[in-house]
Amino acid sequence: MKRKYVLRSDLVGYVGVDIGGQNTRVGTILPNGRLKLISFSTQPKFSDQIEMLSNAIKELGVSKIKRIGIGSPGPLDWRRAFVFDTPNLPWKNVSFKLLEKRLNIDVLLDNDANVAGLGEATLGAGRGKRIVAGFTLGTGIGYFHIIDGRIYHGSLDVEAGHQILDPNGPRCNCGQNGCLEAFTSATGILHRYGVPPHELEDEKAWDEVAFRLAQGLVNIAVHTSAEVLILCGGMLARGEMLLKPLRRYYEQMLKVYPKRYRPKVLPAKLGDKAGVYGAIVLAHVGHAGV
Prior knowledge:
This protein is an alpha/beta fold. It is 32% helix and 21% strand. The protein folds into 2 domains: 8-115 and 273-285, ATPase, nucleotide binding domain (Nucleotidyltransferase, domain 5, 2-Layer Sandwich), CATH 3.30.420.40; 129-268, ATPase, nucleotide binding domain (Nucleotidyltransferase, domain 5, 2-Layer Sandwich), CATH 3.30.420.40. The chain is built from 8 helices and 13 strands. Helix 1 packs across helix 2 (97-103), helix 3 (112-123) packs across helix 8 and helix 6 (203-224) packs across helix 7. 44% of the residues are buried. The model has no long low-confidence stretch (mean pLDDT 94).
């Protein structure tokens, strides 16, 4: 089955929202193919967030909005556009259906890692591939799995950042021991080495992080048989300090596939705009079965 490309011209008229703990970005693709962005500080009160979102969407100047896609930290229920009590936002049990009612425009919500991955799969490093998976490397470890240009959720959502690499390993915020996130997230690195990733200069420490991340990637490769594995997030700014040992360990560990069928590990191409692009794509393609 040949993958159909999503063209930027297909995305005109859709709006994407990328919600972070500090900032919210709202964007749309203009008829000339360029991305128009508006940013504002994420609001402590959800009612104020809806007000700011509504104003920013109107400010984009889209004459007829077809649908709105939103990427948000979870946990959330994408079917109901509902965000539960999330540690990364000051809201508790809120619904983005309020924005839908306010603007009279359909709204789709998904986990921010899924949405960033969707952006990379369709417009970035995974463009043209049918099966794309990967991790977002940040405060936590997010996971995404994209099949034929749609987000795969399973019954709720796939939490591969919480695969257990060592049951005797460090405690994770999720309550388990030895999760990939406990070893390789910014939070995990701070706890284990005493400094955040952007200050960590110890090559041995980065070798340890790369080893654990390679374990996680190999597990994903053999469970999904993806065509490509993509890494997103600010930790990629450390460049070869992380990527050189990561590539070495990944090649050493993954032996079950002939070399030509081993999924390549690629850095993201869309940078910090992956979330906005992915939200716009989500608005266009919808959820599987929606």
